[in-house]
Amino acid sequence: MPILTPQYDAAVVIGRFQPVHNGHLHLLHHALERAAMVIVVLGSAFHARNTKNPFTWEERAAMIAGAMPPGQRERLRFVATRDYYDDRRWSAEVRRQVAAEAGSQARVLLVGHFKDASSYYLRHFPQWQLETLERAGDIDATDIRQVWFEADDLEVSLDVLAPMVPPSVRHYLRAWSLLPHYAALVEEHRQLRKYQAAWAAAPYPPVFTTVDAVIRAADHVLLVQRKGFPGRGLWAIPGGFLDQRERLMQAALRELAEETNLAVLDVTLEEALVDVKIFDHPDRSARGRTITHAYYFDLRLEHLPEVEAADDAAQAVWTPIDQLAAMEASFFDDHFHILDTFLNLTGTD
């Protein structure tokens, strides 16, 4: 493919690619025309599989590579970035990774498409030249995932998707559906659709309020393993929804007691409160717009109080803080990032 002028050292395409579709290839082909190297930034990396992000970043890189001819494939570089739910941290990490691939003085072109309000991230890189393309057909990854997860006959559904995804991705989706992950995500999709249908008659989309309790003691934090959907089997911070007649702190202590039976008096917890932060990213929860108030308690104990799982927790476990980073891909929603905010697990400011 010829490279048109002006020449850039690198072109950058950012996306989740869940899954890769023809609209993504439209961006990639344009980027390959504009620069010798194309850096593909794979977002939502190191995240637990869920209905919005079913594929790991390695699987998405393989999908992209498989959809490109060899001569173009060799010019692609893949980098993965986590969702920090913090625009400043996220954009700084993207710039750092691009500089590591292309050089700190590289002339960089950012290629993208303003799909909707979620595309605001394209404005976070004023130091790069931005080229935006029109939408390549009526293609949306959310619709693709819905067809795939709701397939009564997989082959028929894949035929429906044929105009939207390259043939190699259709083959990938067919093979991937044989893995245990697929059946679990189909069930999670069904449960989420049922959950969202319960609110369909509301006069406007609901905004949910939740609370979470980060409990630290003896260089451990208290985690629960979720018993039900969404996120069955994933690790989470103890917490839940605010009741109608509750104050936020009261709700956090109630949820903590209900899920873990933590053997610590409420007054002791209140005295151990270190910080409170609000986590309100619009995409932090698959259930809908959910704003959580996270309370960080440091008990400053050398022993671990007794706990016992209850309510909707399958387990309640004291987990060493130095093991949390290795568990990142096993956390529900943005709970790893809540812990990271309080405990600096990723070593970045």
UniProtKB/TrEMBL annotation:
Highest taxon listed in the record's lineage: Bacteria
EC number: 3.6.1.-
Keywords: Hydrolase, Nucleotidyltransferase, Transferase
Database matches in Pfam families: CTP_transf_like (PF01467), NUDIX (PF00293)
InterPro entries reported in the protein's UniProt record: Cyt_trans-like (IPR004821), NUDIX_hydrolase-like_dom_sf (IPR015797), NUDIX_hydrolase_CS (IPR020084), NUDIX_hydrolase_dom (IPR000086), Rossmann-like_a/b/a_fold (IPR014729)
Top-tier EC class: hydrolase
Protein name: Bifunctional NMN adenylyltransferase/nudix hydrolase protein
Source organism of this protein record: Herbaspirillum seropedicae (strain SmR1)
Lineage of the organism: Bacteria, Pseudomonadati, Pseudomonadota, Betaproteobacteria, Burkholderiales
